[in-house]
Amino acid sequence: MTSSCPVPHPETERVLLGHGSGGQLMAELLTDVITPELGLTAPLEDAALIGLNQVFSTDSYVVTPRFFPGGDIGSLAVHGTVNDLAMRGARPLALSLAYIVEEGLPLSELRDITRSAAAAARAAGVPIVTGDTKVVGRGAADGLYVTTTGVGMRLRDARPSAAGAEPGDVVLVSGPVGLHGIAILSAREGLGFDADVSSDSRPLNDLVAAMIAAGGADVHALRDPTRGGLAGSLNEIAAASGVCVEVVESAVPVPVPVAAACDLLGLDPWHVANEGCLVAFVAPGSADAVVAAMRALPEGAGTAVVGEVVEGVAGRVLARTLVGSSRVVDVLVGEQLPRIC
User: Fold this and answer.
1) Could you give the C-alpha distances from 97 to 127, 169, 178, 258, in angstroms and in order?
2) Which family does it belong to (predicted)?
3) Which domains does the chain have, with CATH numbers?
């Protein structure tokens, strides 16, 4: 009789934590379970275009800890929805704010989070006009969950879409990557990176408005690389647009503390979440003007040209390494850092 190792059976009928990663498992959850039931067939965007110019977006936030270097769940929820509207070239007009509160949450904490959300909305120039509050029993909500919904109006000449990238486009990143995910992980696990790394959470609507003013319809695609990080956003745009993207590895701005933390923890900074930078695909004729407009604002001061759309396999993202070779940039399969937003 011979023995053999049992073949593991992957879980296929229950939701896993990795289904919220922004990577391959989340894509499968959307395409296999959710979008067919809703009758959705078009590539999914950060926000939906309704009619000619109205844009609509909603998102939920379950980040832990609720307070972290550079922000909290209240400001994060506002920034996240404002930025999702901006990624479709929209000026945000109004937000809703809804809470699911666990019994026992200190009222002082709820007050601080609400005050932070209000301040973030004022800074972004968008009012919070409605909302909802539900209270659930102890142990049912891990303190507080937040949902924000936003409506906006697309800026004149704005046409960005995940499916809009074209051959020859220049790929831009508006700032350093990996800050948010490492800040959350350090605060959650007490890793000691807090002094060097803060979340980059901030609104990007003014930055996008400046980009559209400089480049108009030549700004083909925008994405804020949250869950799944830079690698996830590049792959989403490449797949939706049917193009091949090549990124110069050394051109991607990764802060030294983020790189050190990722080396220590075995993480890829391109997979780590961000909340205050964007990826843009811009026609080459307008790239210089768009870069100059971005660098003129604080939130775009670190803008870097990191790659271009090249001939190659549609839907593939390549990284040109320091030694001149190329590697395929994959999306996350499972969950790297849960509860980061």
Assistant:
1) 10, 37, 27, 32
2) Belongs to the HypE family.
3) 46-154 (3.30.1330.10), 170-328 (3.90.650.10)
